[in-house]
Write the C-alpha cells for this entry.
Amino acid sequence: MSVYIINGGQRLTGEADVQGAKNSALPILAATLLCRGKSEIHNCPELSDVDATVNILRHLGCEVERNGRTITVDSSQVSANEIPDELMREMRSSVIFLGAILARTGRVSLSTPGGCEIGLRPIDLHLDSMKKLGAEVSDEFGHICCESNKRLHGAKISLSFPSVGATENIMIAASTAEGVTTIVNAAREPEISDLADFLNSCGARISGAGEGTITIDGVEKLSGATHTVIPDRIAAATIMAAAAMTHGRVCLNKIIPAHLGPVIDVFEEAGCRINTFGRSILIEAPSRLKAIKTIRTMPYPGFPTDIQAPVVSMLSIAQGTSVVIETIFESRYKYIGELARMGAKIRVDGRMAVIEGVREFHGVPVITPDLRGGAALVLAGLAAKGQTVISQIKHIDRGYEKLEQTLRKLSADIKRVDVNE
Ligand code: EPZ
C-alpha cells in the first residue's frame, strides 16, 4: 500500500504535459474488440483502469502489447464473451465492453459492478438500448446477459439522459448492425467524438458525434486502425486547480483548450488569469482566490462533474462563500468530511455544498474515498500549512498518471511512500 506525503505551501510554477484521456482510452480500447485485425492506440495514459481494460481484452482472447503509452490490440481471435467477476470488480466502468462483446460474438455476460464510491451507477439505459438493437437481455440479481442469434439491427434510440457510457455502447454496437441507428439526446463529451473518430478510421460510418443527435450507418465489419487518444481535460483542470490554490503560474501543454470552456470561465471568475494558445493553457493565480456564487455540474458542454471535487477544494480557501450543486451523481461529496478535517467549512445539503472560504488548510492524515475526491485532498495538501498524509491512493492511480511526478516537476513537495499493509 502507498501513501502520499505532502508538505504544503510550495507555489506551483513551470510547465507540464497533460496525460491522455482515461475516459477516451477506455471505450476506444473496448471498441478494438470489434475490429478484425490489429489496432494501435497511442497516448494511452499509464493508469490502473487502463491495466484493467487490457486484462479484460486478454481474457477475451485478444493479443495485447504495451509499449509505454502505445497499446496494440490484435482482436483477430476473440474466444470468450463473458467478463468474470474479479475482472469486473477491478474496474467499475467495464460495462463499456457490453456493446463490443455483443456485436462481435452475439452474446455477452457480465455482472453489474453495482454501486461504486460515487453512486449506484445503474445501466438501464445501456440495456434498453441493446434491446432496441435486437438483443434479448436478462438482468437477474446483478448478472447481465445480452444475446442475439442474428446480426443486430439499426434503431432510433432516444436517451432519457445523455449518458456517456450508454452513448458509447450504442455507437460501438450499432457500428456493425444492419441499417441505420439514430441516437437522440446523445452525450456530447469530447470523448464521444474521439471514439467516433476511432470507429470511423476502422471503417464505421458515424456522423453527428459531439452534437445531440448521432447517426450510425451500420457496416459489415471493421478493420483495425491507428489512433491517438485526446488529452485528458479532467486531469488538466485538476493541475489548473493546483496552480490556482498555490498562487502559482503553470503552463499546461498538449491540451485542447476548447474542451475546457466552462472550466476556464470558473477559474477566471475565481480571479485567475488564463491565456490559451494552440495546445497550451497558461494559468496565473492571484494571491487570494474569490468565491463563486453558484456552480452546477451538467453534461458537456456544461461544467464537468469530474471537476467538482477539485474545484470545491479550491473554493474552500477562497475569499467568500460559494455554492456547488452536483446534478449528475448522487453521492459525490464523500471527500468533504476529509477536507473538513483539514479545516474546510462546507455544509452539504443533498446535492448542494455551501463552501465558506477559510484562510488556509491544515495538514493532517486523510483517507482517499474515490478518484476525484482523492485529487481534491491532494490539492488541499499542496495548499495546506504543514504535512498531509493521504492513504488509499490506489483510487487516485485509477485516473491520474504519475500525479506525484507531475506535481514535483512543478515544485510541489510531494512523495509517494510504500507502507506495509
Ligand atoms: C462517464 O461515466 C465517466 N466515466 C465518468 O467519469 C463521468 O463522471 C461521467 O461519464 C459523466 O461525465 C467513463 O467515461 C469511464 P453517465 P458514465 O452514464 O458513463 C445515470 C471519472 O471520475 N445513468 O453519463 O457512467 C447515472 O446514474 C468517472 O473519470 C442512468 O441512470 O456516466 C448518472 O447519474 C466518474 N442509467 C448519470 O446518468 C444508465 O444506464 C451520468 O452517467 C446510465 C447512467
